[in-house]
Amino acid sequence: MVCGMMLKSISKYLIFFSFLLFSITTGCNKKEDLIHLKFCTWGSETEINILKPIIENFNKENPDISVEIMHIPQNYFQKLHMLVAANLTPDVIFINNMNLPVYASGDILLNLDKKLNESYVLKEEEFFSQSLDTMSYKGKLLAIPRDISNAVIYYNKDLYDKYNISYPDKNWTFEDFLNKARKLTHDTNNDNKIDLFGTSFESFFIYYLPFAWSNGGNLFNENCTSFTLNEKSACKGLQFYSDLRNKYHVAPSAAEAGNNTMAQLFMQQRVAMFISGRWSIPRFRSDIKFRWDIARFPAGTKGSIVGIDGSGWAISKNCTHPDAAWKLIEYLASEQSITKFTETGLIVPARRDVALSKTFLNDDLPPENADIFLEIIENGIPTPQIERWNEVIDLINVTLEPVWNGNKEACQALETIHDDVKNLLE
Amino acid sequence: MIMPALLGTAIFILIPVAGSFFISLTRWNLISPPDFVGFENYSKLLSDPLFYHVLITTIIYALAVVIFSITIPLILAVALNQKIKGIVLFRTAYFLPVITPMIVAAIVWSWIFDPNNGILNFMLIKTGISTPPLWLFDKFWAIIAIIIVSVWKNIGYNMIIFLAGLQGIPDSLYEAADIDGATSINKLFHVTIPMLTPTIFFVCIMSTISSFQVFDLIYLMTDGGPENATMVIVYWLFKNAFEFFKLGYASSIAYVLFIIILVLTLVQWKLRKKWVMYE
What ipTM did this prediction achieve? Predict the structure, then answer.
């Protein structure tokens, strides 16, 4: 009883204080006719330095709109989630395909199909259809894509030449990949420890799933109701990836890599091939002295198949000026702005015109075969869109950890979580 | 007069505590409206094998940390409770880890533990151990590495508390013991330690509570890995709440943790009569 009364009087105070806060915050924003938009985004310092002038220009060209960048460099989706929960959802949200389903099923994003159809600035056919798919959920377009991410094999040409190995060709297979990796693996100072590994090894899903896909496997069945990574073709592919490290020892173990990232090891010429995406390029261009290029992911029994991920801009349903927010997105996704994002080498643009331009297929800067990033989009498999993605992929990662450490067989390990994953998919 | 203080407590403690209990009865991802599910989260938690793994890991961690961060500081405090030159320097040295920010400590220690370039394994190899542990990359050694860092961080603080306790022991007791012909070992076990038991009790309770709540070191050094070997209860709670956005489940973990700590503290409180000396 006493407790209840206390709570009652406390809640009175709370209501009073929230009114006070409310009146303070709304009071500040009362500049006549100026539309304020909050735009939240992640990104490194270089990325933000590209974005800032674009936003400044937009503000200049649209004197009735004022866009404020909310830059969240770390734990982006955790902070975004809190903003949504607190009903402070930013008007324009930079988002990726893995996190789209949560916000889509929470019904906080505006459907952009109509806006794109009616737009005079953006045309649907200007984008890769796969990239529009990554930004859609259950058939509804919820964000306008900026980029596509996929995986390729970076390789050190100098090391290939040094050991007289032919460069990877278009049709190289898992076997060729292993053979080349074997020839590249060396103990250069004869201390019985390998100092140069054939290939990198990372246990992030975008690096291991291509081994399952290319071998004819898949993560889930077609409508994402059942787990299929434990099926023979899929887990055999994953076992091959694990064997690279544990059986053939052409990739470093976690302990052998220690606190170094795989990108660092590649730059230090301690791994000769590096499975990664486009985002490695700005750093490689500025910091690498040796010659390097990219190759397709090697082909398994079903060809060379890697994933497709992407990020883009969405509008919050809470946004009071969706037309102004759409105008901002049109500006951000225009050929001119996407070209600026592409110039540093950081992204594979979602726009065809920029992807086929000199900006992306730059002849003067490595990689020579930049068009591979575009060729592999056709066969790519988009990361499945499920609401509990974080939980599912965490469970799979934890289950695969002993496989990557060579203590378990992939098929056997994945069999044990088949039902658990199925439950999470429901 | 106490209203402002009470208001702070209410807003930042009482209401969230009550609120999180209600959340623990729901299924909620913060975005979609919450579903009331009664005690489903609790029954799911108690039948989750991972929960027992996490609990055992936490207990092993807490037990080791409590034991070592009482015994080592106690020995150091007795050793440093003397009037010799330069003693302040030693005390400061042992206190330094306490004021070192956790993020710095965690990064430096993960370099120390690095199996290839780390100084620890470099020294172990020099002393003739040909295959030193892989520390943070090994299922067995990872939690031990975390325990080492925690104890290292706690030593200084507990040592200062013990020093204060030691300086509160009246000299007359030692004089009386001298007259009775006690050796220094006798004095340690029959005067110093009994007189210090209230302080030991305090340190014991505080260390138990704080080690059940360990989070930062795990977050910074291992992310709960390898193979969940360092997955402790609060890090698991954090993962459920802010990576999987299972607020209901995470809140039920929080309540179970609260009950565990409450029971442990009550047990310690009851047992104190058996060993704590009050004048």
Answer: 0.84
